[in-house]
Amino acid sequence: MDPTDLKQQLEAALAKHHGVGASAAVYRGGEVTTAAAGLANNVSGVEMTPETLLHIGSITKLFNTTLLMQLVDEGVVALDDPISRHLPELKLGDPDALAAITLKMLVNHTSGIDGEIVPEHGHDQETIAQAIPRFAEMGQIHGPGEDCSYCNTATVIAGYLCQKLTGKSWYDLVREQIFEPLGMEHAAALPEEALLHRASAGHFLDPRSGKNVRTTFAFLPLSFAPAGATLMMSAADLVTFCRTHMNGGVGPNGVRILSEAGARAMQSRTTGYQGPGFAGGFGLGWMLDDDGSMGHGGGGPGILSWLSAHPDRDFAIAVLTNVQHGMTIINEVTGPYLTELGVPDRGRELEDFAGRPEVPLENPSTVLGQFENCAQMFEILEHEGGYGMRLKMKFAFYDGITTDWMPVQPIRFIGQNIFLPRDQVGELPTAYALVNPEAGVPRHLAGMGRLYKRVG
């Protein structure tokens, strides 16, 4: 593939969707093509290049799981070990649940731990180890192993376990056991390491001015690192990591960082997710779809990134953006490749999903109520002769986030327990489902990979 073509794709997507900058790497049939477009920072005016470091957000979870699987390879731990065996100091809000949670549940999102760790301090005030005592306040969204709900808290626990059992910091482990062996020269584990490279900053689209504004949060706090706070890299280096997993744990340079059995275990489905419009299920770390693809997305303050691979087609693509609404850009770039491969385009699937007709509800009272986790609260209510949903954030950890109730958004049901916003402009539709009924009343709201417990 001609890099000029990829660059033109990026430029067109940025222009169409009002982006700032983006970088991409495409691996196909033994060849890697890279390109970049736009700006790394719209205040300094620094241009984006293929070597520029961008945040990968929650794609970090794949690196974190790789570290855990290296411990499995070494015989230090087993996936079915209860976490209390290795972390007797760990306390959770539900002692019975703690006794039942295994290491596997930490990395396939089935632990049931209330999913969001939002550090209360700046990154210079709380380390990964210092965050662990705060988990004693965390309750359960569901019982261990009973369901699947995307969980940042569990990921941080897994990262803490890795550094405790090795006696090294999590950042050193990522650098020494993944970056360096694979020759990932354009990658940083700590914020200060980004200063050694050309690095990108995040941006938010201001709805009032219509302009992209640089974030004031360059990084989430360090204690959130295993879940996706600090790792930055080029799209090419991210694809190098991905190819390593596609090749059974052996990097493009011939260096093995993970056993073939470990790589295969990470890519084998262990659970499904009930909500619509998300990954079909999880392996260990990897999101897996029915079309044979594996991947992961990543968000953060003013960034959105995506990694996707089709091992059976010897294909992988990483698209990293520095705008909060970057998924529209990502889908614009990845769509043609997926079409060429003959696999479903998730962006188009969601658009088709949004085109389904509205259906009348047979028992409206069962869908009304409040649902929450430790970071967010949703309320489904009657609104303007129909139904609406409003959202309240419990923490303001991004630019523009308020802890007040947001305005009610009209919704329409396309099934008895499935709904989406009636008018969603400028981004792909987000669908929700009401699941796990008890006496006919759903106990959870499922959306964006997470479950939210009914509280009213």
Could you please describe the fold and organization of this structure?
- This protein starts with a helix and ends with a strand.
- With 456 residues, it is of the alpha+beta class.
- The chain has 13 helices and 21 strands.
- The chain is globular and about 60 Å long.
- The protein has two domains: 1-354, 3-Layer(aba) Sandwich (Beta-lactamase); 364-454, Beta Barrel (Lipocalin), CATH 2.40.128.50.
Helix percent reads: 25-40%
Strand order within the widest beta sheet:
2-1-13-12-11-10-9-8
What is the count of helical runs? 13
- What is CATH's topology name of the largest domain? Beta-lactamase
CATH class group of the largest domain? Alpha Beta
Features:
alpha+beta; 456 residues; 8-stranded antiparallel β-sheet; Lipocalin; Beta-lactamase; 8-stranded antiparallel beta barrel
Task: Write a short abstract of this structure.
The chain has 456 residues and is of the alpha+beta class. It is 26% helix and 23% strand.
Topology diagram in text:
Layout: H1 3-16, E1 21-28, E2 31-38, E3 54-55, H2 60-73, H3 83-86, H4 95-100, H5 103-107, H6 128-131, H7 152-166, H8 170-179, E4 187-188, E5 203-205, E6 212-214, H9 225-228, E7 232-233, H10 235-246, H11 260-266, E8 271-272, E9 281-282, E10 287-288, E11 294-300, E12 303-310, E13 315-321, H12 327-341, H13 346-354, E14 369-372, E15 376-383, E16 386-393, E17 409-415, E18 418-421, E19 432-438, E20 441-447, E21 450-454
Antiparallel strand pairs: 1-2, 1-13, 3-7, 4-7, 5-6, 8-9, 9-10, 10-11, 11-12, 12-13, 14-15, 14-21, 15-16, 16-17, 17-18, 18-19, 19-20, 20-21
Helix pairs in contact: 1-12, 2-7
